[in-house]
């Protein structure tokens, strides 16, 4: 049980605003006790009519309902008092009696928390009663940490001379053969799509000589099912910049940003307290391993090396011609986080570099004109990809050729794509960047089983409410 301290000194009135968690009628009609909840702490409040409690205050207490917002005054006689003797009570907002969705997740005194497996089964019910669920301190901590990641990323990018450029949510381009990934809508008599990425418009901004730009925004993907990993609406940090020398600048920036974010979450006291609060419901929170190599960087393995590890150390087929599967990412994540890791130290985050050309988009640059390996990478966090980055073609002729020679060709002169190809036609600098899924970052850092838990109002294939 949380303690209640008298910061004002012995005998002075102290006030506390919180939610009524539960009401416990006394053994006799002349007493009432209720449990007050505030930021995950609990305070037992008592009124005794026969002990001199004001009849008006006692009558107010008889009207209390769980989840009502109240302000309690108390003359605390000792800093060690656990029970608060109520001297004043105001109902700020009265909650309806018999609210649905009481899932007993607060961890109040005398309440047994559901097991981790039971909590997974309760998730849809929790999402149906999301506002009540968000009052659970462990749940609220997730959203506060998500906000912290946003704030920290903006701080980092501002310090590295990046400019915030909002990109449009309505777009007129589409990727052929990927139509099932798009949300189509009528846009004042024309067909438009909800943007699946901001990379196209951020790249165009470089042609305006803005040099270093980013957006943190909502993107939309038509994911047909809810699998704990995908959302139809989620938050991405996307950035691109003009390269001074070569593509490794992108890799180094992604590495530096991730280390900054993860270290900040682990080392800053206010974020560590939120992680501890989340740990009440999510035991994996706080166990994240940030293992760096001897140079203080995230560990890196080439794509072909990762496939060889899967074959030779884990006994998997792991064909080098095929992309990393979800299972392979998870297996690598488990191995690298274990004491059997082939890396310098166990880690929950690492980088896979040099993906084959046939596994990357057509406009990703390769190591050489005829090389089958691309200047690209993924960052895997707790067995799940959270970052994809690469250098992109900047030559107008090469972009046109890549589009027209694509397995499902893109017409570079089509109305939807013409602004992008024109940005290259007028002189695009050598460029590249990466996209970071903020939801997956928070999910992996806290060890959440379902990505929907990172969003106050999640949207997946089945959910449009609340």
What is the structure about, briefly put?
By secondary structure, the chain is an alpha+beta fold. The protein contains 13 helices and 16 strands. It has helices spanning 55-62, 116-121, 123-128, 130-133, 137-159, 199-206, 248-267, 269-279, 303-312, 326-337, 396-404, 418-425, 438-446, and strands at residues 13-25, 31-38, 41-48, 69-75, 83-93, 163-164, 170-171, 184-187, 190-194, 212-220, 233-242, 300-302, 349-353, 376-381, 384-392, 431-437.
What's the structural blueprint in terms of helices and strands?
Blueprint: E1 13-25, E2 31-38, E3 41-48, H1 55-62, E4 69-75, E5 83-93, H2 116-121, H3 123-128, H4 130-133, H5 137-159, E6 163-164, E7 170-171, E8 184-187, E9 190-194, H6 199-206, E10 212-220, E11 233-242, H7 248-267, H8 269-279, E12 300-302, H9 303-312, H10 326-337, E13 349-353, E14 376-381, E15 384-392, H11 396-404, H12 418-425, E16 431-437, H13 438-446
Parallel strand pairs: 3-5, 6-10, 12-13
Antiparallel strand pairs: 1-2, 1-4, 2-3, 4-5, 7-9, 8-9, 10-11, 11-16, 13-14, 14-15, 15-16
Helix pairs in contact: 5-7, 5-8, 5-13, 6-12, 7-8, 11-12
């Amino acid at each position: 049980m949380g303690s209640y301290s008298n910061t004002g000194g012995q005998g002075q009135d102290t006030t506390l605003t919180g939610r009524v968690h539960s009401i416990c009628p006394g053994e006799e009609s002349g007493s009432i006790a209720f449990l007050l909840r505030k930021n995950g702490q609990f305070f037992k409040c008592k009124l005794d009519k026969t002990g001199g409690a004001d009849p008006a205050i006692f009558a107010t207490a008889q009207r209390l309902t769980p989840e009502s917002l109240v302000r309690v005054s108390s003359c605390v006689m000792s800093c060690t008092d656990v029970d608060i003797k109520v001297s004043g009570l105001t109902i700020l907002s009265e909650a309806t009696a018999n609210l649905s969705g009481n899932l007993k997740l607060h961890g109040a005194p005398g309440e047994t928390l559901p097991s981790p497996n039971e909590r997974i089964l309760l998730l849809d019910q929790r999402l149906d009663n999301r506002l009540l669920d968000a009052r659970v301190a462990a749940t609220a901590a997730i959203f506060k940490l998500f906000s912290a990641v946003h704030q920290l990323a903006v701080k980092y990018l501002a310090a590295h001379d990046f400019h915030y450029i909002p990109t449009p949510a309505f777009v007129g381009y589409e990727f052929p053969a990927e139509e099932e990934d798009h949300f189509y809508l009528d846009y004042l008599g024309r067909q438009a799509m909800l943007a699946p990425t901001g990379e196209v418009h951020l790249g165009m901004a470089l042609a305006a000589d803005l040099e270093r730009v980013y957006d943190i925004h909502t993107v939309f993907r038509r994911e047909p099912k809810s699998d704990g990993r995908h959302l139809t609406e989620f938050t991405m940090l996307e950035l691109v910049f003009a390269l001074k020398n070569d593509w490794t600048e992108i890799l180094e920036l992604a590495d530096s940003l991730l280390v900054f974010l993860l270290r900040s979450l682990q080392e800053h006291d206010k974020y560590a307290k939120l992680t501890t609060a989340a740990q009440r419901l999510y035991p994996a929170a706080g166990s994240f391993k940030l293992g760096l190599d001897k140079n203080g960087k995230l560990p890196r393995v080439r794509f072909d090396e990762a496939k060889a590890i899967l074959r030779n150390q884990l006994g998997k087929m792991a064909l080098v011609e095929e992309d990393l599967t979800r299972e392979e990412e998870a297996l690598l994540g488990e191995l690298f986080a274990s004491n059997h890791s082939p890396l310098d130290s166990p880690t929950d985050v690492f980088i896979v570099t040099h993906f084959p050309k046939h596994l990357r988009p057509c406009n990703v640059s390769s190591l050489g004109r005829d090389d089958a390996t691309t200047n690209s990478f993924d960052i895997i966090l707790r067995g799940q990809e959270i970052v994809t980055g690469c250098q992109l073609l900047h030559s107008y002729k090469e972009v046109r050729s890549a589009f027209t020679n694509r397995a499902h060709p893109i017409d570079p002169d089509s109305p939807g794509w013409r602004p992008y190809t024109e940005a290259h036609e007028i002189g695009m600098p050598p460029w590249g960047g990466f996209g970071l899924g903020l939801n997956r970052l928070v999910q992996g850092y806290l060890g959440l089983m379902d990505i929907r838990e990172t969003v106050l109002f999640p949207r997946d294939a089945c959910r449009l409410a609340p």
